[in-house]
Amino acid sequence: MAKIVFDSVTRVYPGSDHPAVDRLNLEIADGEFLVLVGPSGCGKSTSLRMLAGLEDVNSGKIYIGDNDVTDMAPKDRDIAMVFQNYALYPHMTVRQNMGFALKIAKVPQAEIDKRVEQAAATLDLTEYLDRKPKALSGGQRQRVAMGRAIVRKPQVFLMDEPLSNLDAKLRVQTRTQIAQLQRTLGVTTLYVTHDQTEALTMGDRIAVIAGGVLQQVGTPEELYDRPGNAFVAAFIGSPAMNIGTFRVDNGVAVLGDARIPLSQATLDAMTPEDNGEIIIGFRPEALDVQADGQDMAHSIPIKVTHVEELGSDAYVYGTLAGHDSSLRTDDKPRLAQVTVRVPPRTAPPAGSIMPVRIRPGGQHNFSAATQNRLPE
Question: What is the pTM of this model?
Answer without folding.
Answer: 0.90
